[in-house]
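Entry type: protein chain
Record version: 2
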Amino acid sequence: MLNVVIFGAPGSGKGTQSEKLIEKYGLKHVSTGDLLRAEIKGKSQLGQMAESYMSKGQLVPDEVVIGMLEGLVQRNGHVKGFIFDGFPRTLAQGEALDAMLTKYNEKVNVVLSLEVEDEELIVRLLKRGEISGRSDDNRETIESRLRVYYNQTAPLKDFYEEQGKLVRIPGQGSIDDIFASMATVLDRITV
């Protein structure tokens, strides 16, 4: 299996590039937000636990999210691999994901980190807010989200870099050029 983690700051293009990677490599997209919503809608035990936290405005504990991811891996043993989009976000989540995958003789093969300068991220997100009407795409909220991203993600980058799995991808330029850089990395792994 090819297991890819893609991460980058808000506005770095993770969603856009994930779609292209899924199409080219036949990977199963894993978005924890989508997974949480599906588990809640399906009224699974983990979904009910997640809903109890979310209804109080609390974050869903890592062990609940990892339990959902483990169920997804179990149900999809036939796929070519997974692309983890927006997860892990913290060092603890990275360690838990590694431990869970190890139980299935799997591992994260590569971590693609989309690197984009802050000012470019802010411009992109403000533009997205104008187009989509998303109220959370304002300068103050964007800057706050970027601070959270850097505080939580910096240790995670080091974690994967120490494992030799982190590949920094320049996230500025055309969508196709950025994708070509990512595909070059994955093509070396899948050969």
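Comment: The mean pLDDT is 91.
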